[in-house]
Each structure stands twice: as structure tokens, then as C-alpha cells.
Structure to design on (558 residues):
């Protein structure tokens, strides 16, 4: 066990499932010398098809577990749906800084776009919240969002390089392009507004028109986290000579988490502990 | 409100989501003069990717709501996953008769099959429980099961008559056929072991070899329920001159339930009441 007096701060990372491990992976690349507590609320996933009220309740319980029981000093909500529908509720429920993935994704889109018109693909709940559209509008961008509910199941089936997945992506992006043209948008940037989608990035980049920039909100959120941490005392501790420490928690089958999680994290997730949030 | 002294008994029907409405539909066709209380545990769906422990906890809470709070005198577990993993737990938790969908599906397969070899398609959790294989073996059948995790999302996307869905069904059934051949099975019957799959029946019937019988476990469970009720006093009450009464409950967004539910029920679901099971 690490000694709290000399260790780097604990960074809590939360998702409804495994997708948030793409954010954890991007965080570890940028801040390797830190202690990470990752919670996947796998007993209640997916959040993407549920209501704001239910998502907020689940997300607050998960955030409180990381902040109160795991001593996380920062929280990264590595779930677009929870960021879109529950960031305010989480910020009110815990006293530590909380970072979502929506605003970093919108900021990266602003930096990437020349036309000021961007497209966003995400889950049903994220799209219905219009959180990306609102964040983009605040930054002076026009944004059009589209729900792509089949992409998460396709990733979880392991069909990340499959002709069916390529066809589903083509159908979704064709519908989005037609809708963008009908709205008079000249989009040059596509935001991947779900932490599962980075695993489909090669297929998505093959499907978009030449020259379109693809923004990964997991990467953008990790960049924002580094900027946040660098402005705080934590940064010096996090840069001390200490190896990466990763604690993983799940609310359902730890075996499945261990098996699927490595796909998203890009390395073995190690031992996963089962927690009961009462849901 | 109906008067308990003269009304037909309340039949409780439970599913993790909307799929069980295909069972309710089959029940109403057979027992139109009854009062039905249907609960969709939509805040915690899907069950099909979760562990036995979690599924049992959710299913018991749902069954107790129908038996204790809605006064259901019979329960039909219109969810293959909950029937496969939690039927015993439910039967122990409530004092009314409880019918699942697995054994009726296996019985119908026995009646349909000439070779004694059957195939079963279902969710991950149902397949991992091997509940269909066990029920089939008890009846003297050999059974091979296959998880088809993309079919539920495809139905929920509304792609019930879509080329992508036809292709996914072809891939799954080809894999299952190859596996059956490798096991030396001469299967002539396919059981639809998930209450979403009846909506894909036309595509599935196009994909199976000529002469293969397709068994819908929703229909089989409704037939078994009629036999169960006919052996009880309830049958006479249920045949009294009384219109069908349907009460629907959901643990998440009632708007979504009202919108999607009619697709499964084959008619409007009417008003849906939100319930909180504490999850």
C-alpha cells in the first residue's frame, strides 16, 4: 500500500462500464506517476438509454464511492452520458474538483475546426441532452449531434474491425451528413462523443470525407485533466518518482470486467474488486 | 377500479424491459378477460449481460413488487435471462405460482423436433447459464446454445427489417450451424430464447435451412400459462364477461416505454406508471 503522506494524489475515474478505460489509458500516458481508482458501474450499464433522473442517481452514488470511500482528490467523469446529464449533480454531491468529457471535447473541436461547423456522434441520452451542442455553441461553433446506439454493442461484441460495423458506421454517418447538408452546415470536424468509440476510430476515419478531423473526447479530457492538475499542488506530487498504481472496481461481474477491460485500457486491468452501491 | 370479489385474478408479467410484452401479447390472445400487471425493470436493463447474483437481486425485487404491491396471483417471468438465472430465487421469494419461459420453450421444441437435436439462440447470460440445454436434456433432447448479443440492440434500434440485421442473423446462424455440425448434431428446430427475437422472426425464418421449425418461447410460455390457469379456480373467473385490463409499470422513462412498448405489444400500451425499486 502507498503511504498517503508521500504518495501522489488519487485520481478517481468513473464510467458506467468499460469505455471510460480509454480515458484512463489517455490519463496514464500523460500522468504515469499517479494513483488511479477506476469504477465501472457495470451492474447498471448502459446509462446511454436511460433517463436523466436515473443517470444522475447512479452517477452521484458512483462519484461518492470514489471521493468518500477511495479518497479520490480529483474526479474525471469518463462517461459522456453521465457528463452530459449529471455533471452538476455530481459537483454538488462531492467537494473535490470534477471534470467531465463534454467541454474538453467541444474545446478540441473548436481548435480543430476551420469552418466552425462540427458533427457529434454519441449515445441516445447524450444526444437528447444536447450537452455537446450547448458546449459547442458557447464556444461559437455550430454543432449537429446524432445518436448511434448500435456502436456500443458492436464494440462489446468485439466487432471493432468487422464489415458489419463498417456498414453500420457508413449508414449512421451518411444520415448525419445528409442532415448536416439540410441544415446548411459545412462540417469539417467529427467529435467521438462516447468513450467506446475510440476503439472504432480506424473504421470511422475510413468512413468520413477526406480532410475531416476526428476528435476523441477521451484524449481531450485527459489533456484537460493534465492542465487542471498542473495548476494545483498535486502536480508536483504526481511527478515524484512513483509507479502508476491502478485500482479497479466494478458493481457487477469482475471476471467480465477483467476480460473486456484490457481491450479498452490497452493492457491488463489487474485485479478488479466487486463493490455494491445498493442498486 | 375492479372489484377483487368478482374480478378475474391479476396476472403479473415481468421483464427487464420491453421484450416481455411479446409474452403479454400472447397471453392476452389466449386469456383476454383478465387483469394484467406488467413491470419492465427498464432502469436496470439489460439483464442479459449481467451476473447471476445481480440478476437474481433485481428479479426478486421486481417479482415482489408484482406479488405484494399489485396483488398478482400468478407470475409469468417473461424474460429468458431472469427465467434462466433467477426462477428458483423468485419462487422462494413469493408465495404465488411462478412460470418461466425456459421450460415451455424446451417442451415446445420436444414437440416440434423429429431428430431430437435443437438449437437455441439467446442472450449472453441465458447461454452461460445453460438453462435451455439443461431443460432440453431433461426432455431427452440434445441442445446447442449460442449467444447473439447484437440482436436486442438491433430490435431496439427499430432495424427489424434491415439488411444489416439480416446479415448479423446470417453470421450468427452460420456460426451456430458450423458448431452444430462439429458436434455431430442434426438439428431441425431453433428456439428463440429471448423475448425480443419474435420481432425478428421473419428475417430468422428466411435465414434458417428449409424445413427447420422456429419455436417462439413467448408463444410457448403463454400456452403453458393457459394450461396452468385452466387447472385452477382462476380459470372460471378469467372466463367471466370482463374486458382485458392492462396496467404497465416501468422503473425508468415511462415516455420511452410508451413509445417502444407498442412495437412489442402490437397495440398501444396505454398509461405507464413509474415505480422506484430502489436500484
Amino acid at each position: 500500500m502507498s503511504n498517503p503522506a508521500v504518495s501522489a494524489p488519487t485520481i478517481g475515474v468513473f464510467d458506467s462500464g468499460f469505455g471510460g478505460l480509454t480515458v484512463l489509458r489517455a490519463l496514464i500516458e500523460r500522468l504515469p506517476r499517479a494513483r488511479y481508482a477506476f469504477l465501472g458501474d457495470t451492474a447498471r450499464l448502459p446509462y446511454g438509454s436511460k433517463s436523466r433522473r436515473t443517470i444522475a442517481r447512479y452517477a452521484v452514488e458512483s462519484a461518492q464511492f470514489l471521493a468518500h470511500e477511495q479518497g479520490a482528490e480529483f474526479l474525471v467523469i469518463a462517461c459522456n452520458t453521465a457528463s452530459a446529464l449529471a455533471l452538476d449533480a455530481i459537483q454538488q454531491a462531492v467537494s473535490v474538483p470534477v471534470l467531465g468529457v463534454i467541454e474538453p471535447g467541444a474545446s478540441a473541436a473548436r481548435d480543430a475546426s476551420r469552418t466552425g461547423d462540427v458533427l457529434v456522434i454519441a449515445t441516445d441520452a447524450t444526444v437528447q441532452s444536447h450537452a455537446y451542442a450547448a458546449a459547442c455553441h458557447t464556444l461559437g461553433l455550430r454543432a449537429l449531434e446524432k445518436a448511434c446506439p448500435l456502436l456500443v454493442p458492436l464494440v462489446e461484441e468485439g466487432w471493432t474491425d468487422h464489415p458489419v460495423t463498417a456498414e453500420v458506421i457508413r449508414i449512421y454517418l451518411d444520415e448525419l451528413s445528409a442532415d448536416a447538408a439540410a441544415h446548411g452546415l459545412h462540417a469539417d470536424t467529427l467529435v467521438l462523443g462516447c468513450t467506446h468509440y475510440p476503439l472504432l476510430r480506424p473504421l470511422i476515419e475510413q468512413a468520413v470525407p477526406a480532410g475531416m478531423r476526428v476528435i476523441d473526447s477521451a484524449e481531450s479530457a485527459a489533456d484537460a485533466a493534465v492542465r487542471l492538475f498542473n495548476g494545483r499542488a498535486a502536480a508536483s506530487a504526481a511527478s515524484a518518482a512513483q509507479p502508476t498504481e491502478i485500482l479497479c472496481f466494478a458493481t457487477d461481474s469482475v471476471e467480465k470486467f477483467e476480460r473486456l477491460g484490457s481491450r479498452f485500457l490497452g493492457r491488463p486491468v489487474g485485479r478488479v474488486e466487486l463493490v455494491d452501491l445498493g442498486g
User: Anything to note?
Assistant: Chain B has two domains: 10-101+220-274, 102-217. Residues 102-217 of chain B form a domain with the Rossmann fold fold (CATH 3.40.50.1860). Chain B touches chain A at residues 42-45, 49-51, 54, 149-150, 152-154, 156-157, 159, 164, 167-168, 171, 251-253, 256, 278-279 (CB under 8 Å). The radius of gyration of chain B is 18 Å.
